[in-house]
TrEMBL record:
<dbReference type="InterPro" id="IPR033403">
    <property type="entry name" value="DUF5110"/>
</dbReference>
<dbReference type="GO" id="GO:0005975">
    <property type="term" value="P:carbohydrate metabolic process"/>
</dbReference>
<comment type="similarity">
    <text>Belongs to the glycosyl hydrolase 31 family.</text>
</comment>
<keyword id="KW-0378">Hydrolase</keyword>
<dbReference type="Pfam" id="PF21365">
    <property type="entry name" value="Glyco_hydro_31_3rd"/>
</dbReference>
<feature type="domain" description="DUF5110">
    <location>
        <begin position="688"/>
        <end position="756"/>
    </location>
</feature>
<feature type="domain" description="Glycosyl hydrolase family 31 C-terminal">
    <location>
        <begin position="586"/>
        <end position="672"/>
    </location>
</feature>
<protein>
    <submittedName>
        <fullName>DUF4968 domain-containing protein</fullName>
    </submittedName>
</protein>
<dbReference type="InterPro" id="IPR000322">
    <property type="entry name" value="Glyco_hydro_31_TIM"/>
</dbReference>
<feature type="domain" description="Glycoside hydrolase family 31 N-terminal">
    <location>
        <begin position="38"/>
        <end position="210"/>
    </location>
</feature>
<dbReference type="Pfam" id="PF13802">
    <property type="entry name" value="Gal_mutarotas_2"/>
</dbReference>
<dbReference type="InterPro" id="IPR025887">
    <property type="entry name" value="Glyco_hydro_31_N_dom"/>
</dbReference>
<dbReference type="InterPro" id="IPR013780">
    <property type="entry name" value="Glyco_hydro_b"/>
</dbReference>
<dbReference type="Pfam" id="PF17137">
    <property type="entry name" value="DUF5110"/>
</dbReference>
<dbReference type="InterPro" id="IPR017853">
    <property type="entry name" value="GH"/>
</dbReference>
<feature type="domain" description="Glycoside hydrolase family 31 TIM barrel">
    <location>
        <begin position="252"/>
        <end position="577"/>
    </location>
</feature>
<dbReference type="InterPro" id="IPR030458">
    <property type="entry name" value="Glyco_hydro_31_AS"/>
</dbReference>
Amino acid sequence: MINDLAARGKQEFFPGQVLSCSQQGSDFLFTCDNGVQLSVQVITDKILRFRYATEVGFAADFSYAVPADQPRAALEFLEFREKPDHYRITTERLICTISKLNTAARILDRSGTLLSADEKGFHWEYDYETGNDIVKMSKQVQSGVHYYGLGDKPDNMNLRGKRFTNWGTDTYGYTKGSDPLYKNIPFYLELQQKIAHGIFFDNTFKASFDFAAERADVTSFWAMGGEMNYYFIYGPTLTEVTQEYTRLTCPPELPPLWALGYHQCKWSYFPESNFRSIAKGFRERKIPCDALYLDIDYMDGYRCFTWSPTHFPEPKKMVRELAEDGFKTIVIIDPGIKIDPNYSVYKEGLENDYFCRRADGPLMKGSVWPGLCNFPDYTRPDVREWWAGLFKGLIQEDGVRGVWNDMNEPAVFEKGTFPDDVRFHYDGHSASHKKAHNIYGMQMARATAAGVKQFSYPNRPFTITRSTYAGGQRYSSAWTGDNIASWEHLWLANIQCQRLSISGFSFVGSDVGGFIDTPDGELYVRWVALAAFHPFFRTHSSGDHGDQEPWSFGEQYLDLARGFIELRYRLLPYMYTTFWQYVQDGTPVLRPLTFLDQNDTETYLRMAEFSLGDHLLVCPITQAGADGRWMYLPRGDWFYYWTDEAKTGGAEVWASAPLDRIPLFVKAGAVIPMYPLMQYVGEKKVEELTLHVYYKQGSETSVVYEDGGEGYGYQQGQSTTRRFTVTGTAASLTLTQTIEGDYQPSFTTYRVVFHGFGVGQATADGQETAVAETSEQGLVLPQVLVASNFTQIVATPLKEEKAS
């Protein structure tokens, strides 16, 4: 007799025939003859949630990504019909059919276009070692399909033909194609037949995604435990898919305006005299900078929440004096708590049993920077509250303005991460490390954010994390980890920041210049030029590889780097407005070319070009020695920022870009707001806002949001939204403004600079106003000065003198 139990244990199981379906409001429960159940929830008319249970009854419904208290909007239209071989659910936007044979789902839009169809559909395999089900989903590949998203994957923008795994990993010196990486965002977008939808697989176990890699006609995703629990998110545009996903998992609050300025970091600035000299270097050289960072060497023996008495004997005084010069001090905090009976944080954690334990009871021990450590269980509410309270000293007492969480994949020297048998509370749904690993960094960031927010009040908090999970954008900004000073990594920084942005996590940047090794001046300047258009803008490097301040490469490169940092500071009102749109509407701050025009198939495989907000198009130089590049302009009319040359899109164009330029185009009809140059946010009162107005034959609307950039008044309505519409004809350019909100910004005047239109005469609200000339980027352009509450400006060309 042959024992085939092992082989049978590896077999795949499938749902049986559907016996019944029950409806409760907008939730539908399908029950199969073999006990499998499928729950389909209509979250909105564009979002359907699918949950499968392999045995009768679902586990408690709990998610770290989707807040439980989110209200479900009433549906305008919902219809449920039973047909001979399937059930049909119809919303205002979608049709979903469930096969009676095996629960296979098909989703169509209301015009009948097939968007998604199960191949094998849901199936599973029992894992004898863990007792978990390995849950799997496979879907048919529709014709002409393309895939995007999935967080920080360092690969081509279009994911078709690739396979990836989510298992947060400290990947020092990763390269193109390295997988997995630090972040775990199981959300991807699919574009086919110019219609977009997304899939969010809300499962925290190690998960994999195959985008038609193994089989060209099948895409699939699976996890090593937990539920098959995913959301289908309809567009029909790519931007709308990201917006719906971001709203589902919740966007962040607005950051303080200074957090969008330039940051300088190194492993490590110490002692205090060195840290102060870095600050002095910025101010003496007139390089704008808002934040300076302290890496692990500021601590006493790498003990979190302490200061080294030798390196930083008077931290409160130092932080205060730096703040008087406009610098915000940011400090690193890792999860590893040094095992030291004389260390108060360790003693509190031990006495209250706040640390993670192994399955049989011993505390989890692992070596990181302080040596042997224990690690808090951030999945416990009381531990998060304790951890948040630990920030009182650093933030409220010492004046530190932000916190940087690192090593929170979680990383352990030599071993990589925690053993599988480490136990977690998981907010009342006890779990092993297999389930909690991918959300550990997110929950640490959550606890940190709570503490920084509590003790920063009435100011807004600022935090940054290396590892996160879907929804982690609520708690923190992020960077792309331990990159390398290479042209390939400059290329990767561009792709990764775009990919994170369309995956709901827009407040992101890279270590400018590379963390590992040292760039030459050319590479550093090209990197600064790109990062000036990323939401999070920070140079960071390892001290093992030399200095990496903007002045480290000689005067020539210093002047060039300073120029791009200055441009960033002038663009802060545009950047802040774009961030406000992200917070309000879930709109990604960085948008790949495909997002700008998904009806143009030329955009599908391109990845260098991206837009920052609605009206700026950027394309970095990622090759040494280049003095420009070919790039693709989306359809429409554009102006080259540096020369005002008008270009028509829908074609490749050559962008001349010596080292003092980055290929940068402005959309015709745009109004780009700019501040006067400052060395740090709040250095001086902004009395005049410059509006750069770009001519368009037709009309275009822009928005400028203002709220003071600090504090929470904006949540009580203390903000102003200004909408500008440019309308151009051959004979005139009209600029209209509507103002929503009662907040009074510090500026009372606009300096309106016209591009692409020779202004001879202008009126503001019917009154003639003087037209003058101004110099911008070496260009002589017409300008007018008007009150900031104007309603309409009409500009016309100089009248031709009549022949005598």
